[in-house]
User: What shape does this take?
Amino acid sequence: MSDLRSDDLRAEAEALDSRDELAAKRKEFALDDTVYLDGNSLGALPAHVPARLAEVMTHEWGKLRIRSWEESGWWTAPERIGDRIAPLVGAAPGQIVVGDSTSVNVFKALVAAVRMAREGREGREGREGRDEIVVDATTFPTDGYIAESAARLTGCRLIPVAPGDVPGVLGERTAAVLLNHADYRTGRLHDLPGLTAAVHAAGALVVWDLCHTAGALPVGLDAHGVDLAVGCTYKYLNGGPGSPAYLYVREALQPRFDSPLPGWNSHAEPFGMRPAFEAADGALRGRVGTPDILSMLALEAALDVWDGVSVDDVRAKSLALTDFFLRCVGAYVPQGEVESLTPAAHGERGSQVALRCEGAGDVMRRLVERGVVGDFRAPDVLRFGFTPLYVSFADAERAARVLAETLG
Ligand SMILES: *Cc1c(COP(=O)(O)O)cnc(C)c1O
Assistant: This one.
């Protein structure tokens, strides 16, 4: 690498950082001088969360004890926090509940989608013949495993196809389609509006997994008529390790949402302790059992970092960061050593850069030792996640430079 080029790129990074309106957000996080490019796996800790959790433990649990279910708002936390996530994914209030893992929510959403599809969409006449579930063949594994089980349970045939090929397999037999908004391995962004419209044209329902897009780019759930969606909160939403996931059920579908996991928390009258199940109204139907309060309230506090942040600004910075990182990699890394799997077109790019590289596992281990933290995905992918609230252009330049040195 020529020092001249590196001087230029460092100067450019500095200029970009000085113009970055989100730059001040970084100090709201507990970070050191590590280049942290793994926020697409575990978001960084917002610095105020430990104090809030300490208060929950010592005051709400420690002093108020059981009174906190009412007095500290514990009972209503799943829907209250759902409404905090809603604007980040383009949803009006009352359609999201927080709780359980993404895996569990994929199960609820997909089985419920098949059940609704068989009744006909939006109350159209019944379509008993719908016996196929289409799933992204390149999906994050848990979604695929659960889709396979959901298919067996509902008597459906599972059809795994690449997202781009979904329109070609849709038809009268399609009940539901499960798709990832962005590919976890390559960072490719899939066409949510177009694929949602195609699924609807076939009379089926679509479930979107937003794990790699919520908090990274505008999703527009309501605007695009998405039926159901799920996502985790520990990646771009910084909720903390194992923080609860969320489930979105479009308002018009809520009366027909028939959860395969009806619990006492989704009952119309939870404290009636009735032997027969009667579903609550609205998004509450997505609840199951007692909410995971400590993780949930850590998430609620973590969401404060989004106050006053526009998702459009986050998206603009994300694209600028990934563009700049790719340019730095192009300038520093000798040709042929790495190959970008992430689409160059902005419309097809999520918020990460995936580089295929020989010995990627070993390369990532050495990068981490040198203070550049990304991750490795088998068999040969280096993944770098760009979280615009706390990653700088200087971070992107340094990551590319250290990568070149590591490979050299
Ligand atoms: C991270 C991720 C998950 C994680 O599921 P958990 O149940 O939280 O372990 C699921 N699906 C996708 C697409 C993911 O990226």
Notes: The radius of gyration is 22 Å. Residues 101-103, 140, 142-143, 180, 184, 209, 211-212, 232, 245 surround pyridoxal-5'-phosphate (CB under 6 Å). The domain at 3-30+309-407 is CATH 3.90.1150.10 (Aspartate Aminotransferase, domain 1).
